[in-house]
Amino acid sequence: MKIIGLIITIITGAFLVYAAADFPAWADPNSPASTYLSPYFIENSMKDTSVPNFVTSLLADYRGFDTMFETTVIFTAGLVCFILLRISGGKEPETSHYRHVLTGVTVTLKKGHKIPESEDFERIDDLWTPPDLIIKTGCRLMIPFIQLFGLYVIAHGHSSPGGGFQGGVILGASIILLAISHDLRTALEKMREKVVAILCPIGVSIYAGTGALCLLLGVNFLDYSALASVLHVDPIAARSHGIFMVEIGVGIAVMTTMIWIYNNISSAGKYNQGL
Amino acid sequence: MFWQIDLAILTLVVVTAVASLMVKDLLGAAILFGAYSFLMCLLWSIMGAVDVAFTEASVGAGVSSVFFVAAVFRTSRRTKD
Amino acid sequence: MAELIPTIIAKYNYWIYITLMMIGLYAMIAKNNLVKKIVGMNIFQTAIILYYVSIGVKKGATIPISTGGHGAVHEAVHAADYLNPLPHVLMLTAIVVGVATLGVALALCLRIYSRYNTLEEDEILAQIRKK
Predict the structure, then answer these.
(1) Residue A122: band (very low, low, confident or very high) from pLDDT cuts 50, 70, 90
(2) How far apart are CA C11 and CA A143, in angstroms?
(3) Which residue among A98, A154, C4, C44 is least crowded, i.e. fewest CB within 10 A of its CB?
(4) Could you tell me if residue C53 is inside a domain?
(5) Of the given ranges (A119-133, A149-163, A182-196, C66-80), which has the lowest mean pLDDT?
(6) Do B19 and B32 meet the contact criterion of CB atoms below 8 Å apart?
C-alpha cells in the first residue's frame, strides 16, 4: 500500500508541477482571477451596501445564497454527529456514582436508583479526578470577556475583520472552555442539550427567513434593499442591516454546532463528565 | 511583505506537517497539527487575507485541536505508524 | 539551469502548496491509523486554501477593507489598491465547513472504535474478514 501510495503521489505531483508552470506570475495584478469579477465587487461595495469590509459584503450580500447553504452544511454536520453518537451510543451505565461535596465520600448506586437533587451531592464518573482550583477560577474569570469579544466580532464584521463565522466560533469556544475547565455536566447546565438542538436550526432559519422576508416584500430572494420599507431607512443602509441580520443567524448556527459536536465527541454520546 | 519571513514560515509549515504525520503518539500529532494551523494563520495574515487568518486562528488552531484531543482521549493514544 | 532558478523563486508559494497537497494525499492513502488519515485530509484541505489565497495576492495592494470608512461613500475606489476579496470569501466558509466535516469524521472514528476496539486499518480489515 505504501509503494502504491508513493507512486500515485509522485505522478499526481508531477502533473501539478507541470501545470504550475502555466500559472500567472506571483502577485500579478493582471492575473485572470483579479480582472473579471472582483474589480466590480471592490469598486461597488461601498456604493451598494455601505460596508467597508469587502469580504463581509461579498459573503452575505453578493454571494448570500452560497453562504446560506454553507450554514446548512454546518447544521447538517452537527446533526450527523448527534445521530451517530448520541442516538445509538447514549445508554445509561449499570451503576452511577455520587460524591458528597464536603466530605468527599463516594456513594455507588445501582441502575434505576437516584439521589434527590441537592447541593450536597454531585454526580461523578469512573475517571473522575479532582478539578484544579486555579484552572477553574481562571477560566471562570476569562469566559465573560471571551463572550464579549465574540459579540464584538459579530457586530463589527462590517468595518473590521470578523463576522458571523468567527464570532460564532469564539462564542462556542467559550462554552467549550467551561466544559474543559470544569466538566461537561456544568457546561450542560448552562447550555442544555435541548437549547443547543433548538438554537441551531433557528440560526439557519434566521438566515433563510431574512431571504424569505425579501421575497414577501416583492423582490428577489436575499435582496436586502427591500427591507428599507420595513426598517424605515434608505435602500443602501437596508442592505447593511440585512447583512447584520444574516450574520447573527450564522453566528448562532456556528456557535451551537461547535458546542454540539464537542459535547458528542468528548463524551462519546453519553453526556457524562467529558474530557 | 518580506519574502524571507514568508519563506521561513513556509519551511516550518512543511516541517510541522511531516512531523504530525510521523510522530507515534496521536496526542502529539493533534498538538503538532494545531501548530501547523497556527503557522498557516500567520502565513495568511502576511499575505493580507485577514478574515481567513482570523477564521483559521479561531477554528483551525483552537476548536479543531480540541476535537482531535477529545477524540484521542475517547479512543487509543498509541499507534504503530 | 540558470533560467530555472528565477522560476523556482518566483513561484515558491505554488511549489510549497503542491508539496503540502502531496503530503496530505500520501497520508490519506498510505497511513494505517484512521486519525492520521484525518490529519492528512486536513493538511490536503489547508493546501488548497493556501493555493486560493495565493492567487488573490496583488503587488502593491492592501487588505480588502476600505480605508475611507463609513463616511466616504462618494470617494472613488480603485480595484488595483485592494487585494482580491473573492478567494478570501470562498475559503472563509470552506474552513468552517472543514471543521464541521472534521467533527463528522471523528464521530465515525469513535463509532468504529466502539465496535472493533482499534483504529488501525489492517486490524479492522482482519476482524471483518474473520466474520
Answers:
(1) confident
(2) 44
(3) C4
(4) yes
(5) C66-80
(6) yes
SS3 content of chain A, % helix, strand, coil (to 5): 65, 5, 30
ipTM of the complex, rounded to two decimals: 0.92
A274 part of a folded domain: no
CA distance A180 to chain C (A): 17
Domain that holds residue A53: 2-266
Residue C77 lies in a domain: no
In a domain, A257, yes or no: yes
CB neighbourhood size of A19 (10 A):
11
Cell of A169: 466560533
Q: Is residue C64 part of a domain?
A: no
Number of domains chain C contains: 1
Whether B68 contacts C110, CB under 8 Å: no
Query: Is the alpha carbon torsion for A96, A99, A104, A107 positive or negative?
Result: negative
- Taking CA–CA distances from A268, the nearest residue in chain C reads C110
Domain that holds residue C45: 4-59+82-130
Nine-digit cell at B71?
477524540
What is the reported pLDDT for A90?
57
Of C42, C54, C92, the CB nearest to B55: C92
Distance from chain centroid for Cα A171: 8
Which residue is closest to B55 within chain A, CA to CA? A166
